[in-house]
Amino acid sequence: MPSSRTAIAMSAAEVTDFIAGGRTLVLVTLGPDGLPDPVPMWYVVDDSGTIAMRTYRKSQKVVNLRRDPRLTVLVATGEVYEQLKGVSITGHAELVEDPEDVMRYGEAVYERYWGPLNDTAREGVRAMGSKRVVIVVKPEKIVSWDHSKLGGAY
Fold first, then answer.
1. Are 37 and 49 in contact (CB under 8 A)?
2. Which of 7, 24, 37, 73 falls between 20 and 30 A from 18, CA-CA?
3. CATH classification of 4-147 is 2.30.110.10, yes or no?
């Protein structure tokens, strides 16, 4: 008989679909005091499955990642126990500062959350990009759960 941990784990395809369908993830970095520093973030998943988010270059999360690149990200849903689903990824960050890459990710975030880009929106993304950096998640461990797989048996 499989353990409940095994029974609720998502397949690789389910993990990919779940993350791609999520809206907000929680990014956890290590603060200057060594304590976890969680923040909600909008993100994109590119064609290769890479998770990335764009933020201010001088933000505390970027300061934290420059000091210690370890991170955890969490995407979760569910209002009651039998609906809980989530994916937690532990790894490290790659900070991308190339202006063209920052622009590309900025456009992708814009399109994901606000819809198609027009010239005005593209110029706004470009203007904001000069102060931004992209955080790319480099996974080392992925843990997932889908309590609906328990079929009501706990």
1. no
2. 37
3. yes
Place of tokens 């923040």: 39
pLDDT digits (tens, 9 = 90+) for 60-94: 999 999 999 999 999 999 999 889 999 999 999 99
145: its two tokens: 């759960």
Q: What is the residue type of 122?
A: R
Overall pTM > 0.85? yes
**End-to-end Cα spacing for the chain:** 14
Summarised one tens digit per residue, pLDDT across range 93-139 is 999 999 999 999 999 999 999 999 988 988 888 888 889 999 999 99
